[in-house]
Design brief:
212 residues, mainly alpha, 0% strand
Length: 212
């Protein structure tokens, strides 16, 4: 069992990567939607790098408990602004996970090419940065993979609805009101962990090898 000092240290290492991952994920949705003609996120104050605007209380707690999966408040999107709503919604949905994959790659590069060379000689200041970079890889991969699950209202469901024929997409969308409950059940029964963790471990190995 960790003592109080260890808990504080762990929180200090986890918090910056989690806040960055969530903020960049939601900002990416808003930015792509804005580029495609939808100003809703900007008008509602969600076109922001302030993490407080994006945090979901339950999703944030899940993040700190699992250290791999969680969620934020969805950025509001109005497809009626888009020239091609179905296709454009797919791009908006993919933007969040795509941004997290990019952050994971950048964190891995930072860890392997820049900070990794200082591991043996690093001291009190550098090692926490190394751990933050390592945790950032895990969290961003976890957030990307989790959000690509085809469960409403996760991003994967938006991608699926853009691919399905309109009639099937409409039927699938009607189940969105049950999606959040299903997500909670899958998370707290460990089902998502069994699905996602192997993918996270594989991508971790792909990006990091045996850095730590």
């Amino acid at each position: 069992m960790m003592d109080f000092a260890s808990i504080i240290q762990r929180l200090a290492i986890l918090t910056p990567p989690i806040l960055l991952a969530v903020t960049v994920h939601e900002m990416a949705h808003g930015w792509v939607a804005y580029r495609l003609g939808d100003p809703t996120a900007k008008l509602m104050g969600r076109f922001s790098l302030n993490p407080v605007r994006h945090l979901d209380p339950i999703g944030t707690i899940v993040f700190f408990l699992t250290q791999t999966i969680g969620w934020a408040k969805p950025v509001p999107v109005n497809p009626s602004y888009f020239k091609n709503p179905r296709n454009d919604m797919v791009w908006v949905a993919l933007a969040g996970p795509g941004a997290n994959i990019l952050l994971a790659v950048l964190s891995a590069v930072l860890l392997r090419q820049v900070l990794g060379s200082f591991w043996e000689t690093s001291g009190f200041f550098v090692r926490p940065l190394l751990y933050m970079a390592y945790v950032s890889v895990q969290i961003n991969i976890g957030l990307a993979v989790f959000n690509l699950l085809p469960i409403p209202p996760l991003d994967g469901s938006k991608v699926l609805m853009g691919i399905l024929p309109p009639t099937l997409a409409s039927s699938f969308e009607s189940y969105e009101r049950y999606g959040f409950l299903l997500i909670l059940v899958l998370v707290f029964t460990g089902v998502t962990g069994r699905i996602i963790v192997p993918l996270i471990l594989y991508m971790n190995k792909l990006l990091l090898g045996t850095v730590l």
